[in-house]
Amino acid sequence: MSRAMPEPGENTHRTEPDPRVTGAIRYAQDVELPDMLYACIVRSPYAHARVLRVDTSALPADVVALTPDDVRALGLYGCQIKDQQVLAVERALYIGDPVAAVAASSPRAAREAAELIEVDYEELPAVFDAVEAMQPGAPLLHEDLAVSQNDAAYFGMRPEPQRNVCHHFRIRHGDIEQGFAEAEVIVEETYRTPSAQHVPMEPHACLARWTADGRLEVWTGTQTPFNLRMDLAGIFGLPQERIRIIAPPMGGAFGSKTFVRYEAIVACLARKAGRPVKLVLRRDEEWLTLNRHPSAIHVKLGARRDGTLVAKQVTCWANTGAYADCGPGVAQKMGFASPGPYRIPHVWVDSYCVYTNLPSNGAFRGYGATQAVWASERTMDLLAERLGLDPLELRLKNVLVDGDRYCTGEVMHDVHFADCLKAVAGQIGWREGRRGKGLAVLLKGMQTPSRASIVVEANDDGSYTVHCATAEMGQGAWRAIRMLAAEQLGVPVERVHFPLPDTDIVPYDTRTTSSRSTYMMGRALVEAVRQLKENGELGYGECVNEGGLDPDTGQGIASTHWHQGAAAAEVRVDEETGKLEVVHLHTAIYAGRVVNPPAAQLQNEGSMIMGLGSALFEEITFAEGQVTNANLSDYNIPAADDLPRITYDLIERPGAEIHGLGETALPPVPAAIGNALFSLGIHVRDLPLTPERVLEASERRRVRSAAPV
Fold first, then answer.
1. What does the pLDDT look like over 416-460, one tens digit per residue?
2. 439: helix, strand or coil
3. Helices then strands (H, E): number in the chain?
4. Sign of dihedral through CA atoms 588, 593, 598, 603?
5. What is the rounded distance in angstroms from the CA atom of residue 69 to the CA atom of residue 75?
6. pLDDT over 90, % of the chain
7. 398: helix, coil or strand?
8. How many CB atoms neighbour CB 366 within 10 A?
9. Residue 256's closest CA among 204, 219, 295?
10. Distance between CA atoms of 392 and 373, rounded to whole angstroms?
């Protein structure tokens, strides 16, 4: 289907009231329990410092304090590398690292109490750049690195002890030296992508209590209830069944609400207080919680004069901040996305996940692909210019098709990269003139291996209840799963119910990330409904995808199926001010089969708008580790009057599987806009494409043009 953004007030044919509109929905920050207290975090003002003393003597008697001594004996945690404690016990590793916490009778009382805690520090040297952090003599953040037992550590990791590298992923395909020896034209460049904030409408919120029999119950906005349960069990030394996670809907997440955030601190306060404790972050604290990985990516690309690609070497540095979080996974996906969807006989990739004294970076919509596509697709246009070829024709000559092997060794099936490229090129009038126009194509992996399970229960009133752990964060996953169940059960969707995910009730799911939920749960649902029809009461279904990559060679199965798409942009530039205006933005995404068209359209639009923000505005700025724009006045996200003409195609194929749509349209947008700018002779290497960077690149072009030949 080809689609433009709906007009205001356009009917989306929803058959039941949307609870987000009626106000019936209740988010994590709305959860309340009798007699509960409110938490506030005390944070380090230093990027790297030894914690010498925490003095709580000035606190009122009715305030509960949590200090390093309270948590010193608790277990380490981390979804992929076990490198974090509940509080900074010995050293604070970034500005904002929690060193203490309080619980009081109101949010205001908690904030006032937190200001009464005195902490003495010994400041230590810090490092903020990932490349610098890998150099000899750089301050070492973690001496010993252990791979986590959490099942989020689903791939082989290669931490480098006594070095600020928590994972080194490699692809070794072909002979890179031979490849570049065969190349007749070689281009190379380094690109940077900054840190960015998720900016969900609802901030992080959680509530914890301990029951009389010693069980921990947590209500929290999380995309990863079972991963969270695993880490909390390790922290408190409890069997996983003694911990219950309830996951209300979230007012946005985009990857930020994954794994342990503040749940452990709140649980410790609740245990010490003997009462439920709730925490809702202030907006500025979001920048201290989780951001997108800043990256530097160096690309070297070789081709024959006819445009045939022969060799590509990529080095990625992913800045994961003070704690690994899921950074190793981001670096791995960044690494295997960076070759791009092309046939290249010789590929060599080194992708490093590097510690620095910045706030932690983790999952962000696009999950490493945005950074990889920015570098890979910008380099394709450099090569096209050097060869004197049309950038579209260069891509079509080399793009993967059905039956090709990717550089990871897997055979590609149901491939539509060329279709996506042709669709976007046609929508911006590529053949009528390329000036001010650019395009980009991407492949993005779905988490592999992966497992999902679901239960369908028949109710006495003729309705059905679906039990699964898929989290709702505004993407419409619950409705999509209900629609699939209703279709298979032969009932209206209103007869299918979806209660809150609760780890005491729902079966296991890997997590709600990687645009996998509708695809995975849809497949599991087939078996669950079949069983239900056989016994009339209950049906269980499971979907398991095997696979994975050798971290030392990059060979194996990176993705059960690939998310595929392309973007094209038309731009105008005021070269006196450097102001870049996007006139038209179009994406084409291979959807396979669309389950819920209105939701699919909204997901696509949201991804495109976030991509526009990454391209033009969004950049967290730091001064010696201090975030300097932690507010929505200084950190700009696209507003309605920033939007260009936005159109898109959701490409379907009869009989195809469902393909995830939650983030596919984001990664190619910045690269398409950057390539449109490059078509005007303006080469900007670093995102975002600010007026200052555009002016600087314009000046470099003028200097080159004026230089004697």
1. 999 999 999 999 999 999 999 999 999 999 999 999 999 999 999
2. strand
3. 16, 28
4. negative
5. 13
6. 94
7. helix
8. 34
9. 204
10. 16
